[in-house]
Amino acid sequence: PLCRLRSASGVLGLKAAEDAQPVKAADNAEVIPQKSSAITASRKREGPATLTDETEWKMVCQFTGPPQDGTFGPGVEVACKVIFAEDEGYEPPQGPIKIENSNYLGSTKSFWKLDEDPEAEGFDKAGFWIWGLFEEPKYPFILVQMEVKQEIPLADGVIPAGTVYGQGRVSRDPEQGVSLTDGVLTLREPVRMKVDLLGLSEGILAEIKPVGTFKCTAL
After folding, report:
1. pLDDT tens across 122-165, in order?
2. What b-and-e string marks burial along 78-94, b requiring 16 or more CB atoms within 10 Å of the CB?
3. Alpha-carbon span 49 to 201, nearest angstrom
4. Is the whole model's pTM more than 0.70, yes or no?
5. Side-chain-facing half-sphere of 22: CA atoms under 13 Å
6. Half-sphere exposure (Cβ direction) of 168: Cα atoms closer than 13 Å
7. Nearest-CA neighbor of 146 among 104, 114, 182, 178?
8. Which residues contact 79 (CB under 8 A, 6 or more apart)?
9. What are the φ and ψ backbone dihedral angles of 129, each rounded to 5 degrees?
10. What residues contact 123, with CB distance under 8 A and at least 6 apart?
């Protein structure tokens, strides 16, 4: 799971993303839009897009499920409106994801965090940016985890209720602001493995399985 890092002030945070097939609504219940084209802004955005409460985003996920025999099944679109709210005082920037207009994705356990290349080795530059030793903190990736409050039906199988994880690229433009692209969605499944040469001890590791893609468009 995502974890908030120690901030410049030394405070530690807590642990740390639409709709596929239509879900039959209960009597007198509000029918939630199912298509991405139905996701619109609730207010007019002023200025460049940001990862704050000031910007609403349309997130469109294409869930395929884990690959079978090396190939992915047909994708199922899941669209919702999200806000990447920022918690002040943390470096890298991070905070909760507010999710609206979704039958399947919820906000209770949804978080985001900017990061350097998660695959790169080396020291963490965040502390150097805090003390002004680098001109500009350029985190090129966003990591997300989103609550799946109801299993998402696929053509072959389901995305189970629980948590789905994502990683996307972050770019910045002086006029347009933040852009989020190339999003990949994964599930983490626990796997028991022997952790000593004699096979007497077991440990649990997380097996990461790709299950789809996502893209975000500022509204």
Report:
1. 545 544 444 444 444 578 999 999 999 999 998 888 899 999 99
2. bbbbbbbbbeeebbbbb
3. 50
4. yes
5. 9
6. 25
7. 104
8. 18, 19, 34, 35, 36, 38, 39, 58, 59, 60, 61, 101
9. -65, -35
10. none
